[in-house]
Specification:
It comes from [Mycobacterium] crassicus. This protein is an alpha/beta fold. Helix content is about 35%, strand content about 15%.
Amino acid sequence: MDFDSLARQTSVEWIGQEPHQPLQPGIRPEQPGKDPFYEAPAGFEHALPGTVLRSRDVELAFLGLIPQRMHATQLLYRTTDRNGVAQATVTTVLVPGDRDQTKPCPIVSYQCAIDAVDGRCFPSYALRRRAKSYGSFTQLEFVLIAAILARGWAVSVPDHEGRDGHWGAPYEPGYCVLDGVRAALATERLELAADAPIGLWGYSGGGLATGWAAEVCGDYAPELNIAGVALGSPVGDLGNTLKRLNGSFWSGLPATMIAALARTYPDLEDVIDHHATVDGRALLRSLETTTTAAAVLRMHHRSLDSYIDRPLEQLVETPAVQHVFADTRLGGTIPTPPMLMVQAIYDEVISVNDIDKLAATYAAGGARLTYHRDLFSEHVVLHPLSTPMVLSWLADRFANRPLPETPVQKEWPTLLNPKTYLGLVRLGLVAAKMITGGAVGRLPL
């Protein structure tokens, strides 16, 4: 797509923006597919990427049940799909009430591990009070979003799969992430400076979306002051991940991703139509309306071979499937911002070999990369354990502290770092405040 033809000024909101919708407490939120807020107004495709189309205040709640004393604004904004076609999606923005007014407030775009097609798993719905989103990983990640806020930083939490749940699609998640930041910076009442330092952070499926944002930001959003990007166990190679997880406890994840990618790649949909059994096609349709945890529990230790008319090993070698694997693989462009990559050596979901290869590709291309290979952790545990490291690293980037001149690779367990425990204490305080419904204010660093 020729982005040079697009103007980059997004400092003002679209002249056709609909009025801001005030908070309406006590009302159960509609799911994204039924909520008119998500419908882009006529002519939105003529707006610039990152333009705010509609906004509203919302109530947030931990697990949808425990109200949180946070001011949250949702922005419907114009972005772009992988083919360069205009689309609209939503980000949820939180701004600390006790921020330092003497300097620009940093903003972190946090990409949740949505890992689903179902709109109930989108952050804009799952984070809201009274949302029926049980089984969404996003609801658990709310603690980490609050930890960012407790640092005195603003947070943008985009629906990076777009409205149609394009999980696994290339490039598009990056556009959604970057345009979400543009939208937040352009919203005057949020009082965020256009040159505010920006951090990008995501883990697992959220790490994949963050990886795409890192790769496309240099061409797509060069005006953004992206100070650092933190990738936690990103899904660097979807093809290898599918083959590795098939038949494992986590087999629901690749099955759901296939359902999502079939929406993006017509040739893949043709392969499914020709080779999936009746039960296989029914399974994929059902996964489109299933939350992430429910898909994992439903499909645990089931092999996709039982839903197709030939061995999976044969189907994945077909040109249509190989094209999808190649197209969705990270590493085609070297990110320009500084990067921290975190990966567990004994990760049972994402192969360390895939991430080693991605890190080597980035380093060979001149990326400013710090790569932490964790010796003790596994996939689920590493995310909270690495949070103190990530937040500290982002704080250094926001303070413009120097980076090592060459890529750095570390192999040291986070469990043996004393700073991890101090950071986990702070994270525990944030979680305790959320569980009790207390205000999450700035915590001492």
